[in-house]
Design goal:
Elements (H helix, E strand, L loop, with lengths): L11 E7 L8 E7 L17 H14 L2 E7 L1 H7 L1 H14 L7 E5 L11 E4 L7 H22 L7 H4 L5 H10 L21
Parallel strand pairs: 1-4, 4-5
Antiparallel strand pairs: 1-2, 2-3
Length: 199
């Protein structure tokens, strides 16, 4: 059973990101403030849900939340500031787009940087403990998947529609065969053989 708020703050925002481990595309974060009385038995960490359930929950979260925000940080920025900083930046940007400023922020994971002096807490596996983080994880994942489906049409040989940019065997084989695209993260080890190449 996921908990709604974990403090007495009325406007508690949960934030999470998707796409950290991908070889291509953005890292996407979402921030969500849910009403105190929000309940949903289906809502869980987005990784535990089917695509169909995620899409169903996306519309539930968007219609029932107080406010939500989603932000992408793209591969060029990931390459210039590294994936951890890019993930935190995406979370900050998603919080920035909220229509109401939160009084407290709960973050999935163990790394975050202060945002506008708002008190925050990092929670390992928070997306399986708190509804607002689970809601943010669903939005981050569905918005990122939509983006990957869109760029899949441009480069169908990498099958991003299916692998969403993650390092699957098929994705790596396509990189080996066709090289990289403007959407690939050049700072990532795109192929295991890169270790042996004199780059």
């Amino acid at each position: 059973m996921l908990l709604n708020n974990h403090t007495d703050f009325l406007l508690e925002c949960g934030t999470d990101e998707a796409g950290r481990g991908c070889l291509a595309g953005p890292v996407t974060a979402a921030a969500v403030i849910l009403p105190k009385d929000f309940k949903n038995t289906l809502l869980n960490d987005s990784k535990q849900l089917t695509e169909k359930k995620r899409h169903l929950l996306k519309s539930v979260v968007e219609s029932d939340c107080i406010t939500f925000g989603v932000a992408h940080v793209f591969q060029e920025k990931i390459d210039s500031i590294n994936i951890l900083n890019a993930s935190i930046l995406a979370m900050h940007k998603s919080i920035e787009t909220l229509q109401i400023q939160p009084e407290y922020i709960i973050v999935d994971g163990n790394k975050f940087k202060p945002y506008k002096k708002i008190p925050f807490q990092t929670i390992i596996k928070g997306d399986g403990k708190y509804l607002s983080i689970a809601a943010a994880s669903v939005l981050a994942k569905t918005y990122r998947d939509e983006y990957m489906n869109k760029i899949h049409k441009e480069f169908p040989m990498y099958n991003w529609k299916k692998n969403k940019g993650y390092p699957t065997k098929e994705h790596r084989e396509a990189i080996k065969k066709f090289g990289i695209t403007k959407y690939h993260r050049k700072s990532f080890k795109l192929l295991p053989e890169q270790l042996k190449l004199d780059l």
